[in-house]
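Standup notes
- DV: blocked on the single-chain target, sequence here:
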Amino acid sequence: MKEIKITCKGSGMAKITELINLQGDLKSLSQKNLEKLKRSIIKYGFTAPVFIWINKNKKYILDGVQRLRAVESLLTEGWILEEVPIVEIEAKNKKEAKEKLLYI
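- DV (later): unblocked, structure below
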């Protein structure tokens, strides 16, 4: 089994399946950059926590979508990672969360 190492700390952990993409298709990731990011994760591990906003028990990703796309691709190749470090960003509503997303 090939396990992706966690090489950072957040304020908590979350299952990848719990995280919801808030930004939609705001950013794109080319196949070339996806492969580069996957190689980096294999070499250095998961090195930065995912920033999330929690609303009604749902965990929305503010920062980390592309890293999670790379991890999901690695999972299809037999790599293992169930949870990632997270940091919760406070926002009073979805509009404010999206505004904060632009500043991250």
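- Follow-up: The first helix runs from residue 31 to 44.
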